Protein 1
Amino acid sequence: MRNTSFASMHCSLAQSLELIGDWWTPLVLRDLYLGLNRFDQLVTDLGISRNLLTDRLTTLMDGGLVVRTPYQENPVRHAYALTEAGQELVPILLALTAWGDRWATPPAGQPIRFTHNTCGKVTTATICCSECGDELTSADVTPSPGPGGRTAPGTALIASVLSGVEAKP
Amino acid sequence: MRNTSFASMHCSLAQSLELIGDWWTPLVLRDLYLGLNRFDQLVTDLGISRNLLTDRLTTLMDGGLVVRTPYQENPVRHAYALTEAGQELVPILLALTAWGDRWATPPAGQPIRFTHNTCGKVTTATICCSECGDELTSADVTPSPGPGGRTAPGTALIASVLSGVEAKP
């Protein structure tokens, strides 16, 4: 249902959205992560139409986020799985899920809990600094242009705004 | 352009996607975070149509992610800003941006860099366990049903699959 391509934007967020494809796609990735790996399981779980799911899985395979392997011949049936790139999206989906738990909780409470196997505790995916490990908030990060920053569609003003910004107000 | 509502799904990821609205929306949130706060700046930066941007900003305000305040009368002009809920999405967008830097980098390199003010280093937003602080990967988290887990549209199989799953294979 999306008519605009973000492929020409010099923005890694836009590129991520371009690769991921559309709103159904995070839910498809969620289901593959949670252990549903067959086409019919995804159709049943999500209530998505077969055509739309075929389209989304094709986008995900073209984008390198999902691979499929035949588990049956005659007729051929495929099992779908996350690639390394797809697996690396999962923690981000967990963080978005935690945000939804906090800001859009259903009345009955959190639908899914996640236990961190290493420490054994129920965990909330939290975004931290790769360098010092502290939690990152929007207030304590300062953006600046990287080597690939460009004035281009989707970033027509940002590059120049960032060039003049030494620290966020 | 999205025709399906995720509002009835018992899944905090689906609820997050429902609140955020559609693909343009993360880029609108990005721009508000980066310091563009006027309608015309957003139109210019993103190359989005005025109608579509009006629609997206209305969704964001209805969802409690964005507020606007008048900065001029006659004609009235508004400045847009992230609410607390919107600000808490920013680190997740940073994590998605880092994923895009890694998996969909433009040839010229990373478009934007982020410096963590606290430690002073260029940072990569990383998803960590709220309890032990270790980095979270898809392999070391085990999902289980929460109090709000339901067999419902969008989670027609997941609740029962998770009930039978003690640890991910």
Protein 2
Amino acid sequence: MRARNVSQTAAGLARTANIRQSTRIVAPQWKNSMAKLAPGRLMQARTYINVSGVRSEIRDRARGNLGSFVQLRPLSGKPLPQVNSWVVNFCYRAGAWLGISVTVLGLGVVGFFLYDATTYKHEGEQSDINVSQLALQPRRGGPDNLPIAEVFIDDDDCEAKKQNKDKPKLVVLGGGWGGIALLKSLNPDDYHVTVISPTNYFLFTPMLPSATVGTLEFRSLVEPIRRILSRVNGHFIRAKAEDVHFSDKLVEVSQVDSEGKEVRFYVPYDKLVIAVGSVTNPHGVKGLDNAFFLKDINDARKIRNQVIRNLEVACLPTTSDDERKRLLSFVVSGGGPTGVEFAAEMYDLLNEDLTRHFPRLLRNEISVHLIQSRSHILNTYDETVSKYAEDRFARDQVEVLTNSRVKEVCPDKIVFTQKQPDGTLVTKELPAGFVLWSTGVSQTALCQKLAKKLGDVQSNRHALETDTHLRLNGTPLGDVYAIGDCSTVQNNVADHIITFLRTLAWKHGKDPEILQLHFNDWRQVAHDVKKRFPQSVNHLKRLDKLFAEFDKDQSGTLDFGELRELLNQIDSKLTSLPATAQRAHQQGCYLAQKLNKLAHLSEGLSANDIRDGDLDAAAYKAFEYHHLGSLAYIGNSAVFDLGEGWSVAGGLWAVYAWRSVYFAQSVSFRTRCLLAMDWAKRGLFGRDLMSF
Amino acid sequence: MRARNVSQTAAGLARTANIRQSTRIVAPQWKNSMAKLAPGRLMQARTYINVSGVRSEIRDRARGNLGSFVQLRPLSGKPLPQVNSWVVNFCYRAGAWLGISVTVLGLGVVGFFLYDATTYKHEGEQSDINVSQLALQPRRGGPDNLPIAEVFIDDDDCEAKKQNKDKPKLVVLGGGWGGIALLKSLNPDDYHVTVISPTNYFLFTPMLPSATVGTLEFRSLVEPIRRILSRVNGHFIRAKAEDVHFSDKLVEVSQVDSEGKEVRFYVPYDKLVIAVGSVTNPHGVKGLDNAFFLKDINDARKIRNQVIRNLEVACLPTTSDDERKRLLSFVVSGGGPTGVEFAAEMYDLLNEDLTRHFPRLLRNEISVHLIQSRSHILNTYDETVSKYAEDRFARDQVEVLTNSRVKEVCPDKIVFTQKQPDGTLVTKELPAGFVLWSTGVSQTALCQKLAKKLGDVQSNRHALETDTHLRLNGTPLGDVYAIGDCSTVQNNVADHIITFLRTLAWKHGKDPEILQLHFNDWRQVAHDVKKRFPQSVNHLKRLDKLFAEFDKDQSGTLDFGELRELLNQIDSKLTSLPATAQRAHQQGCYLAQKLNKLAHLSEGLSANDIRDGDLDAAAYKAFEYHHLGSLAYIGNSAVFDLGEGWSVAGGLWAVYAWRSVYFAQSVSFRTRCLLAMDWAKRGLFGRDLMSF
């Protein structure tokens, strides 16, 4: 029994973990001396005592003498083995852990430096390269006899580009959300891709308000289009699309040359994607040159500089009290996400960073105002969300002026009319040192030109109309697509159903106007409609319900006139997709997938000499928009509208969640790293109030 | 003996480290079975065997039976204890280490988020504050009856500021190297400090060339002056100093108000420090509006945009081959550190990043040219250094044109004359898409105005002259100091010595012109001179040597005429301190130290009603410039001129060393973090070629 204990102890020692097992065999006499040891030394002490016990026991048994241990102790004669205290052991282990960690980290750093060292090129790469003569001196042609860029100077730059040289030419106008989503989902080897855009970077627009006050840096929100293009071995032309000649399949583009002269030329296409986005909607208001916009990086920089300029002028001894209050009155016109987020960021800046180094008087005299034409801010969001945002702003001393329409922006004030609860309009003025104009979007000049060119088929004043396959209405089928803010999907569900029903009625020999529709007929129609207009599914469900009700009461028939009215209502709702990054992104991805399919389909088709017909419908389903929800930052808290009545709003945790969403959606690993760095920077050092 | 071994073994187990000791007692029979174990399992096997040995031995001795272990084995009857293989153990330890590391890192991240969460202020701080009526409505006065900013709106913002309110007013003009060094070394409680500067940030100028091509971000090179000022509880006015009224002790400053109108007012001072820096020297060359400069952040941004614009236009199909070559011809005029570093960074950009995403044709047609008026680039550096730089550039295909003077900068070319080896001047032209002008510095408008106002006492055309205590010559003693590029220290050593010697001569009743100076006399003079002109020490040593030589040959006398000639030579050398950050920094630190001393000295002096006299000389030693060396980046290699003939030049290691120096010199923890991030960014993602 004893022996077994000892063996267990020794094995236990070897494993060190279950050392406590051995306490059982400690003789009572030893317990006293153990008690004298500091409690922390207990584990080692036990080990030691144990071992002595074993040793003594061996001697005892060898001599047949089972006397007490105490008597035997002097016989040992040699000094007690040194044991380490738990402090020493802990330090030893902590040291070991620290040592290993430092070594691993050190190796990481050294590794990074070694990697870094490989990124410096020492020798220039100047080898002979092939450039087509046609690329250097393009032939002229087209309606205006301009140079046609059929071949590019980098068409032979690498093997991949050489292989794509004779593939169908896919030209993308614009490098925004739609264009970039398309590029990121496109197969690399199917098309000769060219992107034409006046800026050579993609801008992550949803976080632009954060950049205006220095929470984020401009460079963290942008990614060079060339870098994104390199995946599909594409080409980039920094120029502005001016016109499209649909019959010649030519895009007319303009660029300012080094002498400041405008140069125009053509870029030919086989497939054209129009994704030029939108411009700020002036709503016919006077004096908008006194206001600031927020569409691109330059706008954001102008805003940042103006805000800091106002703060600096407000500090000067010569600035009067009224003037200081005016300079520090920041007015935002537009209660959509951009306006709300800008107001929130502005408030953060003033509240968190201004007071650190600027005179305290400024903080007291600052005011932020938000002018909204509707009765609530964030009116496209769930009602609870906009209520939350309004409460938050009320607490944060951001003045929200609802039911107000701006009449004029003057250099030193903004004039607006506010609808009173009794319905009367009152004209008011607000001194303003800064006015942001963010009240929705309207068509670009190119889109207006194209819509006019295409005539009656384009009846929407706000965007280019496409069918549900995103093909621009009025252009040769399968040539031209339009995605993103510049486009809208025409869901002519009503027309389609009505035609179908008319046919049905005549077939039954009845006048359609007095047709009583049966539920079974309706199911047939609905099935067909769902396939052609996936967007309408939810609305058709509503009709289903309606029918079910009719079915109960009046044996499943519906009056034709009633039905047409209902369908028209659905139509108008379907046509207005939101002008958001989300929609553009989905359309870009959809189009890329279809183009990928079409590229492989066309091989088979051209083998069979099939060139016409509704290839898009044959190749891929129609576009369907899935609303994934909306979110907005409202000053140390954020709101999420997840659609269908679900919404969340909260404080700091929601802010982190809001950031996480955008972090995940960000365009590249590079921008993600930069975003993380920026947020850490804000936490550590605050926002820097410098203008340049 | 056995027992002792066992006890040692068990103690060894407890310590685990010296477990090998126990192999001795393993019975030979067991060795065979041990051999069957994998070598990696040896340690655990030994432990186990040992323990069994102990167990068996106990039984053996108890029974008085000392038979072999092999016979005893079956008696044990129970399964052998499980031992872990070294792989399992290693994994266990690695897992533990990883676990601890992840936990520590995780805690770090959580800690950071918790800290971050505290940086969001939820409630606005709008408390009542005291603002002097005089700060809101300053009284008018001075030569032009302008408002005088005697009290500031933030004078009562906090306790520290309140305490400094009635301290002597120290006004610093400029927030460059000199001004910032002064602020960083000044005692917080001695002065009411005000900084007046047209920009509200300090710019780390030596790294500006890196920012032009995106190696570094602009924001990594700047630090808000307000943040630096907060240490001394100072005040900042973003305005431009226009004039100084020395008799009224008023600085006249101008600022543009929100309507674009210039507003002027006075800022009173007790002590004024002029540190306004310098402007680019036009050298009277025509067409400089076609060239770019590199003095501030806006210049750097303009350059960055122009470079990228040129690259983009060069990609267009309508750009002819000649035009493309011209657009890609980058010319730098000036072979000093700025010009050389810009050329090097430009070359890096073109070599490392351009080829990644731009057409390869561009790389072949790009050229970088460096025009230098002297016979070598970096001509202020050691000769080996400039030779190294020239060799490096020759290898990197950066064309260095020495002995060349620019005559005119045209929009599409640069015209210069080059001195041929035979001494003739040849006029040459170079097509240029971009011209950088970086050929030294000249005086700002303010300095010119002040020099003119002070009259003959300011005879230097290039800078304001001060005495060795950095007091501006011609102004009331101890009122006005000038430091940095805008100033130069007048070391009138010659005048001083000559006067001294003249006195000496007349005392001896001799004509000074025929005075033969003895070595002992000279030592006396030198002692006095050293104290007043610390800068001259090295030169005086040379004189000492010279004297020693004369001493040997002609019994220690020197001709007065010879001496004067020598002294004048020394003088002219001493007066031209380099226009570098290093000098400005040293002067700023020196002045701060002196002002700290003066503040406490003045208490005693005012108690004794002493107001005049050379307080500066009484309080602190004269300024002495210590040249710590110069360094320059020359394209994946760097050169260090450590002074007195010592110089180092090398490849990548030198680049890292060069960065380390600037990293250490950087103005704040914030900028250091950002610099490190930027360098890591360049390594990971390259430079981003985007313009905005």
Protein 3
Amino acid sequence: MKHTDIKEIISSDKYIGQQVTVCGWVRTSRNSKSVAFIELNDGTSLKNIQIVVEKGEGEYKEPRVGMSLKATGNIVEGRNHTKEINALPSHITILGDCPTDYPLQKKGHTLEFMRSIPHLRSRSNTFNAVWRVRSVLAAALHEYFQKNNYVYINTPLITGSDCEGAGEMFQVTTVGYNAEYKSEEEYCTNDFFGRKAGLSVSGQLEGEMAATAMGKIYTFGPSFRAENSNTPKHLAEFWHIEPEVAFAELDDVIEIAEDMLKYVIRRLLDTCPDEINFFDAHFEKGLKARLEELISHDFGRVTYTEAIKLLQESGENFVYPVEWGCDLQTEHERYISEKVFKKAVFVTDYPKEIKSFYMKQNPDGKTVAAVDLLVPGVGEIIGGSEREADYDKLIAAMNERNMNLDLYSDYLDLRKYGSVPHGGFGLGFERLIMYTTGMANIRDVILFPRTVGSIR
Amino acid sequence: MKHTDIKEIISSDKYIGQQVTVCGWVRTSRNSKSVAFIELNDGTSLKNIQIVVEKGEGEYKEPRVGMSLKATGNIVEGRNHTKEINALPSHITILGDCPTDYPLQKKGHTLEFMRSIPHLRSRSNTFNAVWRVRSVLAAALHEYFQKNNYVYINTPLITGSDCEGAGEMFQVTTVGYNAEYKSEEEYCTNDFFGRKAGLSVSGQLEGEMAATAMGKIYTFGPSFRAENSNTPKHLAEFWHIEPEVAFAELDDVIEIAEDMLKYVIRRLLDTCPDEINFFDAHFEKGLKARLEELISHDFGRVTYTEAIKLLQESGENFVYPVEWGCDLQTEHERYISEKVFKKAVFVTDYPKEIKSFYMKQNPDGKTVAAVDLLVPGVGEIIGGSEREADYDKLIAAMNERNMNLDLYSDYLDLRKYGSVPHGGFGLGFERLIMYTTGMANIRDVILFPRTVGSIR
């Protein structure tokens, strides 16, 4: 069906005076004696195009909200440099009817109601804008890494590692609901892979294998958590960006994280001004200024030890008590970024007890070269580290945690054969979208959210 | 660690005469009385850079293959406009040792051996080249869709649909190996989602929901098949590109598929000449010419009915007999594209019995508006269709297949509320990489292949 994207018509003057055909869904419709108006949206733009129907010729039947139609007419300039289409009734063809029980009749539905119609909510302005932001941010991330010589890799989703009693991991099976097998061993040997398998919570370990060959890599794919967390910030299935870089120390990791984040937000502001203004107007006043502020300043930097001191001296009444060795809670993270630094801030060098086995051990014997990026309004958005590149130190950290070294022989090989300083970080894609749109519930930034008890 | 990517040095003259620091792994090393040579690779390029060590000053210990090191020196132009680094022994720092049991000592390992060391094989030229092609093709696909106003969407991987007795689907569970629950019902209600869940085999149905809101969308994510197919062409976990377009009929789908494929292959030829030459030399003679041929001609087009006639009149001795109504086998597909058309060819309008319920029913009552793209050397690489947009016809096709309509109410709503002609196709990413590299086994074009019985 030859037609022109409404986005193209709206964003260019070259169509003025031209005859074009557009297709779309009716958002609103008004009818008067001699002229009728249809607001048409085809999904390519947050904005509708207005069809001005000159009713002189032919019969005109006013289309209902939600109907799909095709219209051919001339583009003219409307008020405020908008574009309109002048079309005759005979040049408007209804493609699909829409009965009056269409759930999106009126504007102003709650987000909660919209979650009950995930297959239709994308037809609203809000979700049109969220999905476009999501798409543009994804493209900007690819662009950033590609132009900096990173190789995009796909780490496996079905994994055999970390499946030993990991309560937060989904199991993957072809015999799981089959009562035929009585023991766990019998299950496993009869299963598709001949052993236990689960859905990966992170591609980092495989990312390290690729980075210590390709130099710089990034993943962009789904990760899974079978966590029983029914909160506005947790998904059982989320998208994850995990760059990993060889010949890099903690400072390099920090530099990359800041550079990447600024790049993609700058790109978003340039590419989606309508969407950002929409969110600023309807979801978070001051969003645009907040994002512009973020990218125009150097991010702050503080060690965990300094941060603990700042929190202890703050006089604030935190729900969770603060002492050296504790995990930072969201209230602490927000205090640091919102009250102390008033901007994005990297917190580094956490106690080794609260961080993962693979993080580089600092000379002090107490901390590891970890980094979290805290941003105002959200808290932690990125977590990363330099990795322990020393074979013996890594083994020691794993033994301290009673890990089964046999399951990690591939990973340990990276420290045996040409080990290099390397590091990386993880960015939860949905957290980034929440942060850049002001959407407060993670269920509203992914098409079909998966959460505990919910899989529609 | 401040250093310059070897790729940057190799591809630009601006470093000549400059002092730079490079990091990488030793590929080979030669030592003579006054001078030594190290071929260093940092993964950013298929090519190594040669370090020429002037042994006059300081002590020089020849590095072993696989060791990682850092070297600082001046860039000079070598033979054939190559770049070399002149470095003093004191400016070479070993980062990581590499014992002599390093598996990649010599060149010329078999691909089969390499599959036994998936965590190290990326350090070879072959896999360095495959992963870069993979990355560049992925970026080109994003680029193509983004510049044509498509919205990148992420469809859910864990799905509740199609889980009724689908033998080819992996089950996802948090209680699957738990012998506590005795009946299937008890399992399900106690499971994470409170019901059966599985890993998606395709994002198409959700893609349609997004396309009938956003106009043009594409997915790029993993799909899963629990098929017991231990062949060089099947993976249990593969990456899938599925564009879906509203206001599109079969001809539009075909046009998009051709345009997209030509775009990404053109991009690959421009971006990865070294890699393509490498594959041409070592894996498939004539690869480059074949790809250039592909993008310089209009793809052919034939209906299924015509194709059957061509096959029947061919005089060929096919293993699988040919008659109207049969599925085309790879031998048939290759005959059509290699012998009849001698180029890529779209086969359209297949018998409805051998295609899916959602495909648009043609007026003849026998065929559906399906399309497969066949390419020389491989066979089918893309499969798509216009979708049935008529509510009653779709219901009829589902009833013919005894499908449970209740499970598809969301999908049916798309035909109820503003239905539009729409269509799309699926491209298996690994098939595209095989086709563009000449790699013959799908296990060699994905980092960590998942196949029946194998999950390392």
Protein 4
Amino acid sequence: MNIEAKAGSSFTHTFRFSQADVEAFAQVTGDTNPLHLDAEFAATTPFKRPIIHGMLGASVFTKVLGTQYPGYGSVYLKQTLEFMRPMFVDTDYEGVFTIVSINPDKHTAEISTEILDSQTRKVTTRGVATLMNKEKF
Amino acid sequence: MNIEAKAGSSFTHTFRFSQADVEAFAQVTGDTNPLHLDAEFAATTPFKRPIIHGMLGASVFTKVLGTQYPGYGSVYLKQTLEFMRPMFVDTDYEGVFTIVSINPDKHTAEISTEILDSQTRKVTTRGVATLMNKEKF
């Protein structure tokens, strides 16, 4: 078990997406909702400008959990997601991961997952991940 | 309100992903977990071969909800996800969307979201989406 893998320990990862990332995500997933791609359409919405797909923002959870914290060997079991505020391109965000509980018998953990705007500190997305990792938990 | 937008109505969308899709998803999200990309590593896991990122499979939810059912104008509020069974490339899956409840005052709906293997009919991923759509709900 990793020294950091105990309830209450946390990990932060800073990230940002570009409009090219949004377009690549739209292409691979097929989610071509104009809210994400069409500035003219987005201007007619309460958001005023294109927002990132909520699932693209939330993909920082699978990225960090799968590759960094706890990392390789992780198997994703569950994720809850609340899309609380819009996210925009070319903006710094922080993914904050906090271990809520570990079940050593099952090699699973519940990890609180949040995205904050690096400047305003407001939470844009939050949820809880459940992971299995036989080496880390 | 769309004629289909009532509790109990449902919509099915068939889809599949290729290994190129998995690689594109890994690139845009940064989730380079070898479980999805490296056949040699995956052979050492209980899955025996590379599995699709759970979030890539679940992206069919944002795709269909954002572009088809209920479609444009949808704003994603919440999504729960349970990754119950692995998903593989070059395999047909069905996304099944069933309206659980509509709140016309808030223009929101809860929609059950499931992915089934088209052949075995086993559920690979399930959850509930909460959406706002001012024109459809």
